[in-house]
Structures are given as C-alpha cells and as structure tokens.
Amino acid sequence: MSPGLPGAVTPSMRARQICPIRSIFRHGGREHSAHRRARFAGSARWVAPGLCAGPLSCAPMTQRLIRSRNPSVLFFGSDEFACVSLRAIMGVCSVQGVVAPNTTRLPAPTFAVASGLRLYTGAPHCWDTLPKNVDVGVVVSFGHKIPDRVIGSFRYGMVNVHPSLLPMYRGSSPIQTALLDGVSETGVCVIEVASRMDSGRILSSRRVPVDGNDTYRSLRDRLAVVGSELLVNVVADVERAQRGAIQQGSAEGLRRATKLHSDHAAVDFETMSSDDIYRHWRAFYGFIHVHAAWRERKRLLLIEVDPPSRATDEWALPPGEFVYDMSRDRIIIGCRDGTHLAVAQLQVSTRKIVSAVAFAHGYHIPRRRLLSTDLLRDCTNRT
Hints:
- This protein is an alpha/beta fold and 383 residues long.
- Helices cover 26% and strands 22% of the residues.
- The protein folds into two domains: 11-243, Rossmann fold; 262-377, Formyl transferase, C-terminal domain (Methionyl-tRNA Fmet Formyltransferase, Chain A, domain 2), CATH 3.10.25.
- A hairpin with a 5-residue loop joins strand 14 (340-348) and strand 15 (354-355).
- It is an enzyme of class 2 (transferase).
C-alpha cells in the first residue's frame, strides 16, 4: 500500500473501475442508469453519468485566471452534494486528493477513485500525513469537525460550501429544515472554515427560490450546482475573496439545522393535516422515507405522494381511514381538519414497494370511484 493514511488508495488500484453509485443528478430532465465516459484534466475516466451532466457556467475571465494560477486543493467530502463541487474544481484546480470518512462506499470517495484521485480515509488523528504545501482546503458535506491544526496547514486556510443563507440553518440538515419550515427562499454560502462549525466569514453567497413542490432531492441538486459555481470563483482568487469577506450576523433566535434521523420523518394522520404531511414528505424525499404507524405496530412508508387537494370535503374521511380511489389509482388517507392525502406508492415495513392498487388488493382497502367536480357539473347541466 502506498504511504499515507491508513486505507489510502492509489489511482492504479481502481482508477478504471466503474463507479457503482447511481447518481440522482439529472441530465436533460431524465435519470440515467447506464454509465458513460467523461473527461477530466485530459484523462478519460468512468464516472456516474449524472455527475457529469452539463458544464458549469464560469466567466471566461475567471477561467483564464484559474488556469494561470492553477491553485492546489485538498478536498474533504462524502455525498452526492459534494460530488458536484469536486467535479467542478477538478477541471480548474490541481486536486491533491480527497479526504473522506472511514469508508469508500460513499459517493464522493467512490467518484474520486474512479477519477484517478488519491483517496485518504481515516480518523482526524491520522491526518498528519495529508499532503503539505496545499493552497486551499475545500470542505463540502463532510460531516466531521476539522481540527484547527489542519485548518492552519493550508496556505489560504479552508473554505466550506454550506446550503443555506448563514447564519440561518447552521448545522447538518439545512436543506431539510428549510423545507420543513416552508420557506420560499434559501441559498448557498461559501464560508471560511473556523474553529466553531458554520461560523466563518462569508466569502460568497447566492439566494435560491424554493418551489412549492420542491423536494429535498430536487432542491439539493439545484443548490449543489449553485454552490459549485460559487466555489470555483472563490478558489480562483482566494485572497480577493478573503479581502471582501463579511462576518455572519448574530444567530440568536434563528433556527438551527440539527442532525435528523428516522424518528423525525414520522407522521400522524390524527394530528397532522395533509399540508403538514406533504411538507414532511418533501423535506425527506430522497433522504429518509416518511412513515406512519400501521397495523400490528408496523411502519407504513409513503413513497410517492401527490400535492394536497384544496377541496376539504371531497372525501370526508375520518383521520387515519384509508380508501382506494379507482379513478386516479391512489390510496386516499384521511387527515386532520377534514383534509386528505393521495398516495401513489407505499411500502409496509421491509416489504417491497407497491402501487396503490396492489396495496388496496393486498390489505383489503375499500374501493371507491369519486366523480370529479367537472363531471358532476356536466351531469347536472344535462338534466
């Protein structure tokens, strides 16, 4: 094994391995399961296709500046969000390696090895053997606190891409928390890495609107691209970015984005309206499946959910009662305040995901056919 951290992997070991992750970043509005070739720094590598989707927009002047300086970078990251920034800086910086948590199954380290980059894994106390004399350390969705000695080892310190308008939503779940709060706008900041998490000076930022039907996955994808564009411009001239840096405002009274787990994705039809449950589903879609209590203490996972209907008396179901809508092929669930939820796909505990009609058949859900308002109006006019 080559010298370096425990678990260091050289490019020659797995440089041409097909990346095993199925990227959820879209190209042309579609998801692709096949892998294709992409070029980075003049070398052809196998990578997941979504991670290569579309060029980033950088001003020609910025690109010439980056090429002339060719700053060296050490990248710290783990997930799909990090992959987008890693891909962006690979074409314009000299990436000295990728530092990842102690696993090679995460998207960022897998992508790094497939792209021929040196991979370092291990606990922070093993980081004494990281590359020296590197210009900038880049942290994107890393999930671990960086020791001060590591921050100070880079010529220009370290920068972090954070998907919120800091100091709002400091913490590990800013995208999910913003969706849970129902905000109409969020954003991305590139900040200096400081001793205290997410508290460094802001080097660059951009506001991003939130659509009413955005999910964690769709919003994450957009924020990842915006963050990578900001990052490229910051590392192009770190000194200039640092001269224009601003301090974060006070975080007192602002919502923190605490670490989320499965219990946070639980919903209750008795106490939550359809709007509440749909907001939860949007916030966790692509992260954790929203679930509710089901028969015999089982969990019912809501896989695909429709936006709530505005007609509160359309079904008039008591909270927690299920019917199968034969007209739309949906399971209709009564919720609080006379509202209802339409679900297209469900899953009970560890069983497979099924359609609404299969769920209705397997669990003997009553069937109804609801005439639409327009059809009822037509019938009335004809009489």
